[in-house]
Amino acid sequence: MGYPGYPPGGPYPPRPSPWPWILGTLVVVAALAVGVIAAGIFVVTQRDKNTEAATVPPPSAQTIAATNAPPEAAVDPQAAAFATLRARADSDRPFVSANLSERWVPQISAKRTGLVAPDVDGRVVTWTNTEILAQHQRLRQQYPGTRLIWSDEWNTFDLRGWWVTLAGATFAEPDSANAWCDAMAISADECFAKLVSNSRGPAGTTKYR
Q1: How confident is the model at residue 122 (pLDDT cuts 50, 70, 90)?
Q2: Taking the domains of the chain in order of start, what are their residue ranges?
């Protein structure tokens, strides 16, 4: 079949290419497909969020209370150190009664809160519960058998409120206890002979070096 307005046999103009229409159609189809996929992803995502929200239980009363609870009060280090000293003296007392009392022992430290005296490094400090505890623990590690007592609980102390550290060695007379202090090279201010008892008073129960 010829082209209207043209003589039979041509020449005829070139036929228009169908590719622009094909490409346009493909672009439209691709755009629609992308839109459909995006819509599907959105629907699935929303469905998963709704499912997750439905499966998470509401917070319990305990959880709400814990969340809204005020922070715990800070622990007072001095009170904690005093409690530790008190517990240590309580636990050591049966041993002292059975093994150290009524004998001469080296007293290697006596401290009370507020005392102004040198520490182990020679620095003059005002002693607190934390420092007294730290010194006692150091002495306890350094000298096996060391025990802690509270002066108020023993009749041979005439001063109240002192934490007293005793070495675990016992002797029949005070000079031997003082010789132990010399052998350990502990200062005369810290270490001397002491007799711990609840059957007698303070008189004659202390011998300094």
Answers
A1: confident
A2: 19-67, 77-207
